[in-house]
């Protein structure tokens, strides 16, 4: 079946409103002390009228809103980062970390750029790539579009549809799009697009940006394009913050052709990645670390299967599948009220209406261990039961 896609210049979405591209999951778990705005970090941002917070939370929140792996960073990684503190008097030297990342993907160092998280990479690309028709595939992580708009680009959206399971058809991308951004696996849908589908989008004169921030949570990293050098204009972004619990440290990297890497590096400030973050990059790319990440991916897959099975007990709830990332996207009636009810019972979940192409009936749930899932299901049953009474 041909996928139905909606081209949108950003003035509206399938949900009939313009989403808040700056909203992130961490806003769902921050205390309601008035110290932050709608996006959880900007105190000048307008208040979120749908945010289910009160003067105090009745119980400590279990975080299902942020996709960082629970129980991280591991002790050995904390030790590596702590050891780097003795060198803080010196300016950061990223050469060893860059070589480590290059070796991890069997690439020359000229094809690697270390960044202050993947978010910085989106900003650098928006500033360095001269695009006449940039296209962002949605629903997906909203920072790429926000960065492009901040840099003065007029962004066109291709909206994937629930009807087709939010799967990408290469024919939905305009043939003259010279910058295409897509996530794989995609946040928030948890869809893993086939590598051959994404590879078919590459062509001379086009920059194809594939955000693989969650690819190391996919067993075997199947569908990964990281390490490919045969596709013209390919840019792959990776993050070390999700699997290793380093969101507060900020470390990610870009894999691309050397000329583009040089352009992006020229747009960076001096010493953009701190010495502790560089130490983390080296530590997370060792064979032992990669083996640990692979084992974690298998565990996440099993925990996700348990979550989906338990969610299947609710006839009014639909989960997008097959899910391949460390989170699942669900649709259910009056999801905003459900979100508030779950928060009152100690669970923070991610609202979906801030993603272009989704609306207020969507929520995203991070995959956690089975005991946490079972507690969530109990709370969800209470909330839905109260709503039905």
Question: Could you characterize the architecture of this molecule?
Answer:
It contains eleven helices and 13 strands. The chain folds into two domains: 14-71 and 290-388, Aspartate Aminotransferase, domain 1 (Alpha-Beta Complex), CATH 3.90.1150; 75-289, Type I PLP-dependent aspartate aminotransferase-like (Major domain) (Aspartate Aminotransferase, domain 2). It is 31% helix and 14% strand. The strands form two sheets. An eight-stranded mixed sheet has the order 1-5-4-6-7-8-9-3, with helices on both faces. Helix 3 (117-128) packs parallel to helix 4. The relative contact order is 0.18. The chain is an alpha/beta fold.
CATH superfamily of the largest domain: Type I PLP-dependent aspartate aminotransferase-like (Major domain)
- In terms of DSSP E residues, the strand content is 5-15%
Assembly form of the protein: single chain
For this structure, what is the CATH class of the largest domain? Alpha Beta
> What's the story with the biggest beta sheet?
8 strands, mixed
Distance between the termini: 40 Å
Unreliable parts: 9-15, 32-57
Order of helices and strands: EEHHEHEHEEHEEHEHHHEEHEEH
What level of helicity do the residues show?
A: 25-40%
As a whole number of angstroms, the C-alpha radius of gyration is: 20 Å
Strand tally: 13
Average pLDDT rating: 90
How many helices? The count is: 11
CATH architecture of the largest domain: 3-Layer(aba) Sandwich
Shape: globular
- Give, in spatial order, the strands making up the sheet with the most strands: 1-5-4-6-7-8-9-3
């Amino acid at each position: 079946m041909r996928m139905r896609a909606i081209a949108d210049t950003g003035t509206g979405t399938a949900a009939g409103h313009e989403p808040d591209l700056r909203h992130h999951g961490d806003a769902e778990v921050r205390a309601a002390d008035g110290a932050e705005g709608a996006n959880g970090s900007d105190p000048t941002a307008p208040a979120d009228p749908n945010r289910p917070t009160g003067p105090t939370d009745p119980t400590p929140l279990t975080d299902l809103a942020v996709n960082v792996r629970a129980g991280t960073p591991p002790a050995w990684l904390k030790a590596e980062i702590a050891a780097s503190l003795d060198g803080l008097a010196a300016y950061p030297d990223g050469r060893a970390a860059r070589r480590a990342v290059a070796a991890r993907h069997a690439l020359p160092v000229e094809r690697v750029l270390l960044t202050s998280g993947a978010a910085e990479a989106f900003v650098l690309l928006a500033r360095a790539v001269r695009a006449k028709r940039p296209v962002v595939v949605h629903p997906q992580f909203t920072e790429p579009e926000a960065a492009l708009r901040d840099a003065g680009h007029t962004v066109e959206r291709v909206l994937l549809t629930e009807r087709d399971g939010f799967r990408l058809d290469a024919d939905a991308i305009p043939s003259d799009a010279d910058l295409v951004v897509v996530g794989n696996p995609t946040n928030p849908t948890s869809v893993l697009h086939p590598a051959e589908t994404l590879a078919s989008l590459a062509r001379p004169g086009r920059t194809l940006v594939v955000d693989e921030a969650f690819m190391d949570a996919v067993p075997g990293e199947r569908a990964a394009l990281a390490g490919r050098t045969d596709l013209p204009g390919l840019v792959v972004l990776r993050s070390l913050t999700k699997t290793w619990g380093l969101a507060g440290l900020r470390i990610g990297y870009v894999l691309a052709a050397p000329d583009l890497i040089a352009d992006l590096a020229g747009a960076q400030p001096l010493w953009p990645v701190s010495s502790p973050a560089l130490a983390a990059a080296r530590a997370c790319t060792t064979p032992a670390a990669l083996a640990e990440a692979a084992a974690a991916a298998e565990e996440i897959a099993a925990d996700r299967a348990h979550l989906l099975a338990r969610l299947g007990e609710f006839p009014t709830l639909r989960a997008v599948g097959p899910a391949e990332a460390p989170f699942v996207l669900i649709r259910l009636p009056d999801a905003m009220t459900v979100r508030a009810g779950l928060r009152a019972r100690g669970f923070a979940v991610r609202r979906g209406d801030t993603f272009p192409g989704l609306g207020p009936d969507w929520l995203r749930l991070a995959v956690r261990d089975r005991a946490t899932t079972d507690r969530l299901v109990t709370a969800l049953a209470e909330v839905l039961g109260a709503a039905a009474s």
